[in-house]
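Q: Convert this sequence to structure tokens.
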Amino acid sequence: MLAVLLCRFMAFKNIDLEAPLGSELLRNAKSDLPLAVWESYCLKYCSFPSFGSERELPVALYSWRFDPNNAEFGPIDPQTAVDEARVWAIETMRLLKSDQVAEALEASKRAVKILVRGSSFSQPKRGQPATMRPMAVRAYIIQKFNADPKKPRASTITWAKLADLLFIENRKCPREIRDTDGTRTCGVVRHQYDGPCVKALRTAVGNLRSAMKHERIPL
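A:
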């Protein structure tokens, strides 16, 4: 069920991926723009079915776009998620049979959101929190659209710069990190290339790249 329920592309439609987006992404690093560019990029190569003219993403990728701590996407028990999503899946099929495509898309979207919440609940407690997922998407897209013309597959935006863009608030990093002394607030005003926040971001982007590769999205 998780593999086949889909949701339509919801924001920033008609993004021109051939346009020079690098500067705009840097100016809007924490906005929805990098997330929407990533979704548009994935949809370009996604081989999943579509509703009419709408391209769709598999749940495995769709879930990277959202912070599970958001009230709308907070984790719920997996069995509850399956039970609730089944209702909306049946409703989607009913609406499609009645040629109510727009309504079917909305029902499909509800089903996917519920399944994402159930998936977040069942994630291992160790390792990176799912809240790093949208940060990883932003970091991946910002680097990709700020490619270094002199170095293949390299970016002009360093990992430390990315960490500053994505984590710094009120001139310091409020992110909670764990080290040998326990849990503490990062608190730096500028990240170093080998700092814990940078390492966490690189790991999250690595996981994102693996998820995209699994869905055959070119990197």
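The two ends are 27 Å apart (CA to CA).
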